[in-house]
Design brief:
- The protein is α/β, with parallel strands linked by helices.
- Strands 3-2-4-5-7-6 form a 6-stranded parallel beta sheet, sandwiched between helices.
- Helix 23 links the parallel strand 19 and strand 20.
- The chain is globular, with a radius of gyration of 24 Å.
Length: 547
């Protein structure tokens, strides 16, 4: 029996183990959507309809980060496809494995400014790992196999497949999914060079004040256990970038916190005093390494990353190691790492960390300091909770003050995409329905994605939303108060809705807290509410991330 390309696409997704897609239908992709009903794929692959294509892109991204599997997102042509671009760029900057499938106008009308036509493969070329424009049904099995392979191997990232509507209607006599992938020129390194491994071990043995800096690449390589084993075996303190923030529990004695311009004081002190920096799965970006040349001048550096383009891009490494982080860390451990005497080094840092963890936060009448609520919230969360946090002051407060256990924190670290957290939380909850799921937003970022409450309602998802309300674009407001700017302008959220009424319109209960003495009581009620709940936390507009 002959099969249409649209059905072949669905069969390919099943072959890849896809159980969920996030999307928004439109005219050119209706052949694919028809397959959910026509051949019963709705019983095999769950479809989550979001309120906006960008929401679908972030939800697929959150699904990917929460599971380690490739996320999948559907959209139609033209504006449907272009609405994905922020989500694609977000996934690209944070190396998140997502396959985006768009459907275009007929092949004959491509390039003729047809209704809802756009060159989406060309548009996303600068910020996607790869893209395909499929013009022959015979290519679909190979293209899908390659797309999932490229998205999930080496340095993960987004891949786009665009299929014209007439190609979707082509038929094949026989469907056969390829067993292997052979892409000329694409062979990511896995194992680290043995000589470089030896040099790393020797450098650790010589160091008096070594420091590990762990980034999101450790999560992507599923190398959390190996990282902890290396740190504990050698008694090396660990700082993290924002993307690696939840790799270690906050109360772990070797955890020094987050580095960078908005990082923890203890972490930045550790970076300032170390004599050997071991960078693992991090690109040494400007937000984390404020002055990479100064760091390079003061100490030797080891840089372990799967992407050779990242090594030396922002900071030269004395010992570069290209390959899979999990494999390389295991090679280092198997070689027999030295037991270093870090007592004096850890003693230097101990008081900094103790002061930070025991810090008394400021109080203001009629409002709650974000750090106060986050510290109490973190103590009450499940051990493996997933927390999705948006961009702005809420992101910085959460990364600095929310106690981490053994869960996962998801955020847009590279692109800094406002409106990321709510749809990402949806994707994470769909991926792991049994895990506690928290979303943290500011009132600015929440209003960029609050229409996705419809997806939460439709799918009946137990997502708990913390909304810090200060009636301004907090981080912009904060920056505008410093030189060379002349005070806040254009940041007041005077048109904000009544968030309680808004949540109620979706059938979602809400709570409000503006008194720090009532935070514990309200948090307990919030976390024990059945299903989705919105917690509105009143924050003074002048509160800054350095307070």
């Amino acid at each position: 029996m002959r099969m249409k390309t649209a059905q072949i696409l669905m069969e390919c997704l099943l072959e890849q183990g896809v159980d969920t897609v996030f999307g928004y239908p439109g005219g050119t992709i209706l052949n694919v959507y028809d397959e959910f009903e026509l051949h019963g794929y709705k019983d095999k692959i769950r479809h989550i309809l979001t309120a906006h294509e960008q929401g679908a892109s972030h939800a697929a991204d959150g699904y990917a980060r929460a599971t380690g599997k490739v996320g999948v997102c559907f959209a139609t042509s033209g504006p449907g496809a272009t609405n994905l671009t922020t989500g694609i760029a977000t996934a690209y900057m944070d190396s998140s494995p997502v396959v985006f499938i768009t459907c275009n106008v007929t092949e004959e009308t491509l390039g003729k400014d047809a209704f809802q036509e756009v060159d989406i493969t060309g548009a996303v070329a600068p910020f996607s790992k790869h893209s395909y424009l499929v013009k022959n049904a015979n290519d679909i099995p190979r293209v899908v196999k390659e797309a999932f392979h490229i998205a999930s191997t080496g340095r993960p990232g987004p891949v786009l497949i665009d299929i014209p509507i007439d190609v979707q209607e082509q038929t094949l006599k026989k469907f056969q999914y390829p067993e292997t992938v052979n892409i000329r020129g694409y062979k990511p390194s896995v194992k680290g060079n043995d000589l470089q491994i030896k040099r790393v071990v020797e450098a650790i043995a010589r160091a008096k004040q070594p420091l590990i800096c762990a980034g999101g690449g450790v999560w992507l390589a599923n190398a959390r256990d190996e990282l902890l084993e290396l740190a504990e075996s050698c008694a090396i303190p660990v700082v993290k970038t924002m993307m690696g923030i939840s790799l270690m529990p906050t109360d772990h004695p070797l955890n020094m916190g987050m580095i960078g311009a908005h990082g923890n004081h203890c972490a930045n002190q550790a970076l300032a005093k170390a004599d050997l920096l071991i960078m693992v799965g991090t690109r040494a970006a400007d937000r984390a390494m404020v002055d990479p040349k100064e760091i390079q001048r003061r100490m030797a550096t080891i840089h372990i990353d799967v992407d050779p383009a990242e090594i030396g891009k922002n900071m030269e490494a004395a010992i570069p190691l290209v390959g899979d982080v999990k494999v390389i860390l295991r090679q280092i451990l198997d070689r027999g790492v030295p037991v270093t005497d870090s007592t004096a080094w850890l003693d230097q840092l101990k008081d900094y960390r103790k002061a930070e963890l025991n810090r008394v936060f400021p109080r203001r009448e009629g409002s709650v300091f974000p750090g106060t609520l986050l510290r109490k919230l973190g103590a009450k969360l499940d051990d493996d909770a997933v927390v999705s946090v948006d961009v702005g002051q809420n992101q910085i407060f959460t990364c600095k003050y929310l106690p981490q256990k053994h869960g996962r924190l998801l955020t847009s670290g590279g692109l800094g995409t406002m409106g990321y957290a709510l749809p990402a939380g949806i994707g994470a909850k769909v991926a792991a329905p049994e895990r506690q799921n928290i979303v943290v937003c500011g009132d600015g970022s929440f209003q960029m994605a609050m229409n996705e409450l419809s997806a939460i309602k439709a799918a009946d998802l137990d997502v708990k939303i913390v909304l810090f309300q200060n009636n301004t674009l907090g981080l912009v407001h904060q920056i505008q108060k410093t030189a060379p700017y002349h005070g806040p302008f254009g940041v007041a959220l005077d048109g904000s809705p009544d968030f309680t009424a808004l949540a109620g319109a979706y059938g979602i209960p809400s709570l409000t807290v503006d008194d720090e003495d009532k935070v514990d009581e309200v948090l307990d009620q919030f976390l024990h509410t059945k299903g989705c709940c919105l917690l509105i936390v009143k924050v003074h507009p002048d509160v800054g991330t350095n307070d």
